[in-house]
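Why this split exists: single-chain examples teach little about how molecules sit against one another. For that reason, every record in the complexes split bundles all components of an assembly together and asks for one structure covering all of them. Below is a record exactly as it appears in the raw files.
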Amino acid sequence: EVQLVQSGAEVKKPGESLKISCKGSGYKFTNYWVGWVRQMPGKGLEWMGIIYPNDSDTTYSPSFQGQVTISADKSLTTAYLQWKSLKVSDTALYYCTRCYGFEGEFDYWGQGTLVTVSS
Amino acid sequence: DIQMTQSPSTLSASVGDRVTITCRASQSFSRWLAWYQQKPGQAPKLLIYEASTLQSGVPSRFSGSGSGTEFTLTISSLQAEDFATYYCQQYNSYWTFGQGTKVEI
């Protein structure tokens, strides 16, 4: 069974750093891209970026370029999304997704990680 | 960037109704469009990809059509479990979601 299991909810202060994770199982992790999607409270879905774990080829949405870093460790079948300095406006639910081929549909989603940034 | 605009933003319907949601793209492309369903407190779920291909396990009352700049999602007979928010997504050039359509009673 394909699963993407994300790390738990986080509460952080502005300026703090954070790295959340997404562990893939039930499929060949290096054959699929892993994308990240943001959903701000009560809002829609926004694509942030995507990584190919086999070689760590990464593409970012222009809206998120320079704001976050996406990485992956294929030996752990895990992808990551990290911030160096969180802002209150980073408060959101973050989903990881699986995608076969660059520019494909997102066929599996993680359960989401809620990140709350508040002073 | 390709922008996606869904209509309506909210749709009030009853069980058994035929429901159609439209997604318009700012640029034309062939079939690289997906539809997702999201229920409160849950992750989105893929319903349709390549504009009209039903994802495995998705009931046949869901269908998709369109190409170019206009795409539609149709639910032929709305069921209680279909009340949710629906998003279109283009993946012709990177990925962009529509703003969502909430289907409510």
